[in-house]
Amino acid sequence: MAIPNTWGAPYGGYGGPPPAPPVVPARDLRPRRLWYVVAALLGVVLVGTGGALAVLAIKDTVNSVDAAHTFAGGEQRTFAFTRGETRAIYVSQSRWGHVDCRIPRELADSLTKPAGTFRVTRQARSWDRVFEFTPRAGGDYPVTCTSEVPGAEFALGDKPEVRGMVGGILAAVGCFLTAAVAVPAICIVTAVRRGRHRRRLLAAATPPTWGPPPSGAAPWPPAGPMA
Q1: Tens digits of residue pLDDT in 32-48
Q2: What pLDDT score does 121 carry?
Q3: What is the DSSP string of 152-169?
């Protein structure tokens, strides 16, 4: 004969399967997933800006030589000059050799030999800066250069802005480093805070794990002192 259970549900709620954990929709978590998009866009902007700065710095340096209007050693070539705009003379030769250039006296008093070296490689050809001068008058004037190295080629160009080039490259590196640090940091902080918010919401929505207190008579052995 079956004996009915009059004690109610046992401790711990073992009378049935545990309730399913609550589900927290991703849209309810804070901060929003929009911050992942912000991090990605920030990375794209920083990397793009850094790349543009690097390209501009290198391009300005390479274009400082007017390689489209070269002249051979011993050849006289006429160029247009602007008063007060410093120009540079570059040489391309197979090896180092003594270089000499001449310009009219009315264009500039003398040529200045730069203290440091500066080389630009353009279209697989290297150009070394050998002289600089600042025209004191504008107009068209002839320039003649010679070298002890046969086959040397000369070109006029702008005075290289070394500081500007270095500054542009450093700014580009700064953009790359900022992107490498900021983007992962934003993603990590967002993920950690969303995880904490999820745990808080789960804790608030999860019912207690213990069952209701027993009802009816106490289970065997009976309560009270044994006779």
Answers
A1: 999 999 999 999 999 99
A2: 87
A3: -EEEEEEPP-HHHHHHHH
Grade residue 159 by pLDDT with cuts at 50, 70 and 90.
confident
Using one digit for the tens of pLDDT, what is the confidence trace for 69-85?
A: 999 999 999 999 999 99
Q: Which pLDDT score, from 0 to 100, does residue 227 have? A: 45
How many residues are listed for the chain in this entry? 227
Place of tokens 């050809």: 125
Q: Is 190 exposed, middle or buried (0-12, 13-18, 19+ CB in 10 A)?
A: buried
The residue assigned the tokens 């009315």 is 106
DSSP letters spanning the chain: -PPP--S-SPGGGTTSPPPPPP---GGGSSS-THHHHHHHHHHHHHHHHHHHHHHHHHHHHHTTEEEEEEEETT-EEEEEE-TT--EEEEEE-SS---EEEE--TTT-S--B--SS--EEEETTEEEEEEEEE--SS-EEEEEEEEESSTT-EEEEEEPP-HHHHHHHHHHHHHHHHHHHHHHHHHHHHHHHHHHHHHHHHHHHHSPPSS-PPP-SSPPSSPSS---
